[in-house]
Amino acid sequence: MNKLNCWEYKKCGRQPGGEKTEELGVCPAATESRTNGVNSELHGGRACWAITGTFCGGKVQGTHAQKLGNCLTCEFYKEVQREERPDFKTAGHILSLIRNTS
């Protein structure tokens, strides 16, 4: 099974070298190395719900606490959850990785 990163699933173009990086910048999820391998993929590509500054719904999202409600209803989030069961890494786990390696 080919597991997609958020930028591939959402086709946002904000990954390094993406077509929207000049206009919108590179997404923090695409470069967050502290989450490398979480939920089976590259950088924060399958942990975007716990990463501040991602671009969803046409605007930059705020802190984890501000955006989690939207993320929980996101089809990509639900897809990662299904694909990773029973080893799905929750936001709490991901946030501890980010905090403990800063």
Structure description:
By secondary structure, the chain is mainly alpha-helical. It has one domain. It is built from five helices and two strands, in the order ααββααα. It has helices at 6-10, 21-24, 64-72, 75-84, 91-100; strands at 55-56, 59-60. β1 (55-56) and β2 (59-60) form a beta hairpin. The longest helix has 10 residues, at 75-84. The radius of gyration is 13 Å and the shape is globular. The mean pLDDT is 90.
List the helices and strands and how they pair.
Layout: H1 6-10, H2 21-24, E1 55-56, E2 59-60, H3 64-72, H4 75-84, H5 91-100
Antiparallel strand pairs: 1-2
Global morphology: globular
From the helix content, strand content and strand pairing, which structural class follows? mainly alpha
Tally of separate domains: 1
Average pLDDT figure: 90
Unreliable spans are none
Order of helix and strand elements from N to C terminus: HHEEHHH
The biggest sheet amounts to: 2 strands, antiparallel
User: What is the radius of gyration?
Assistant: 13 Å
Number of helices: 5
Strand content: under 5%
Cα-to-Cα separation, first versus last residue: 32 Å
How helical, in percent, are the residues? 25-40%
Give, in spatial order, the strands making up the sheet with the most strands.
1-2
* Secondary structure: number of strands: 2
